[in-house]
Design brief:
- One of its GO terms (molecular function) is sequence-specific DNA binding.
- InterPro entries: AsnC-type_HTH_dom, DtxR_MntR_Metal-Reg, Fe_dep_repressor, Fe_dep_repressor_sf, HTH_DTXR, Iron_dep_repressor, WH-like_DNA-bd_sf, WH_DNA-bd_sf.
- Belongs to the DtxR/MntR family.
- Keywords: DNA-binding, Transcription, Transcription regulation.
- There is one protein chain.
- The chain is mainly alpha-helical.
- It contains six helices and two strands, in the order αααββααα.
- The chain has helices spanning 3-18, 25-32, 36-48, 64-86, 91-101, 107-125; strands spanning 52-54, 60-62.
- The chain has a two-stranded antiparallel sheet with strand order 1-2.
- β1 (52-54) and β2 (60-62) form a beta hairpin.
- It starts with a helix and ends with a helix.
- The model has no long low-confidence stretch (mean pLDDT 90).
Length: 126
């Protein structure tokens, strides 16, 4: 399975869960921009890999393994988005670009971006 695709699914499931939305096939398909049949096929793979719990017709839930990865991806997304906003990128564009960047950036780069964001927050409060 492609890492980026796994991350997209897990992050989307995570976001829907924390927004209090029902996590179903049609909702995931709409959010991911794919057909419901593609979602079903991919959910089976995620379930086999131990990222989610999914039974046909039932709700989709993250396992501990899936939750940890999704949370990490969401944190990466938020750090990158905040960094882009500090640079003067609009909220809308920062959101779009963070989605692209979050999957390909090395962990060391994320750590340095996080340090920069934290430092910038501290300086802007003084």
């Amino acid at each position: 399975m492609r890492k980026n695709r796994v991350e997209e699914y897990l992050e989307t499931i995570y976001e829907l869960y924390y927004c209090g939305e029902r996590i179903g096939i049609r909702r995931l398909a709409k959010k991911l921009g794919v057909k419901p049949s593609s979602v079903i096929e991919y959910l089976k793979k995620l379930c086999e890999e131990g990222y989610i719990v999914y039974e046909k017709g039932g709700l989709i839930m993250l396992t501990n393994k899936g939750f940890e990865i999704a949370r990490e991806i969401k944190n990466r997304h938020n750090v990158i988005k905040e960094f882009l906003k500090i640079l003067g990128v609009s909220e809308e564009i920062a959101e779009i670009d963070a989605c692209y960047i979050e999957h390909g950036v090395h962990e060391e780069t994320i750590e340095k971006i996080q340090e920069f964001v934290n430092k910038n927050r501290t300086q802007s409060r003084v």
